[in-house]
Amino acid sequence: MECQCTPEIKERISEYLKNHPYLNLATVSPEGKPMVHSMGYVSAGPVVYMGTGKDTRKFQNIEQNPSVAFTVDEDSLDVFNITGVQIEGKASIVTDENEIQTYIQLVMEKYPFAKDMPENPDNRIIKIEPTKAFFLDYSVEFGFRYEVDY
Fold first, then answer.
1. Helices (H) and strands (E) in the chain, counts
2. Cα separation values, 97 from 40, 42, 72, 124, Å
3. pLDDT at 1
4. Taking a C-beta distance cutoff of 8 angstroms, is the pair 17, 43 a contact?
5. Are the CB atoms for 129 and 89 separated by under 8 Å?
6. 38-97 pLDDT, tens per residue?
7. How far apart are CA 56 and CA 60, in angstroms?
8. Is the pLDDT reported for residue 131 higher than 50?
9. What is the pTM of this model?
10. High-pLDDT (> 90) share of the chain, %
11. Which of 2, 43, 60, 81 could form a disulfide linkage to 17, CB 3.0–4.6 angstroms apart?
């Protein structure tokens, strides 16, 4: 079951992203093969940011095809109360210095241990801006999800 939804659902999505540590990022290789990557991330509203090396498969896939999707959810055996988000979006490489500083601040707030990690000049920051999102809430009804366009 799907429905068009209100700004409150967008806020629930933003809060859900803010309060979870990992996502599963789907990219497509230049050969057209789908790949999924587990990633730590930070968010600003519905926009997510993550760091990765410039030589990783995910980075190379995004350079070739910026269309991505990801999920954030919880491991639960209670299938009648599943919650999570599924997001489709466009990825880009962050180069703006102010946005880089915002990313660093968000990382330090969410992952305080990151201050002890060495800097790597080969790392890049990926930004994903959503185009469509689904908020799963099986407590409403098994299989229920809200649909939101951005």
1. 3, 8
2. 21, 17, 28, 12
3. 43
4. yes
5. yes
6. 999 999 999 999 999 999 999 999 999 999 999 999 888 888 999 999 999 999 999 999
7. 6
8. yes
9. 0.91
10. 85
11. 43
Q: Report the distance separating Cα 67 and Cα 61, nearest Å.
A: 9
Angle value at C-alpha 40, between 36 and 44, nearest 5 degrees: 110
**CA 87 to CA 92: how far, in whole Å?**
15
The amino acid present at 61, given as its one-letter code, is N
Residue type for position 64: Q
CA distances from 82 to 39, 48, 88 (A): 21, 22, 19
Domains delineated in the chain: 7-149 (2.30.110.10)
Q: What is the spatial distance between Cα 134 and Cα 88, in angstroms, rounded to a whole number?
A: 9
d(CA 103, CA 121): 16
Hey, what are 41's tokens?
């991330």
Q: Shortest CA distance to 20 belongs to which of 108, 67, 85?
A: 85
DSSP code for 49:
E
